[in-house]
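ok so for the tutorial part 2 we go from a plain amino acid sequence to predicted structure tokens. step 1 is just haveing the sequence, like this:
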Amino acid sequence: MLIRRAMVSDAECMIELFHKLDSETKFMMKEPGEQKISVEDQAKVINSFSDRPEKLMAVSIVDESIVGFIVAAAGSAKRNRQSGYMVLGI
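step 2 — the prediction. this is what the tokens look like for a chain of 90 residues:
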């Protein structure tokens, strides 16, 4: 297994994983069919995490396929930099 930062080229595979996770579990935010993000929009999201020390988007790869992801982000204001959120899907 390889874990690395998400790259813009991962956008389509990540969307496929989101759809799969939405249909396999009720623990993700969206219901099956509710995920409406385009490849271009997901690429923009991934790009927004690049070179930002307070943000991380990483993927887990097995046999050249993305099988999981993690998103972690701290607040951007001085008053909330010590707090943040995390999303994990496998």
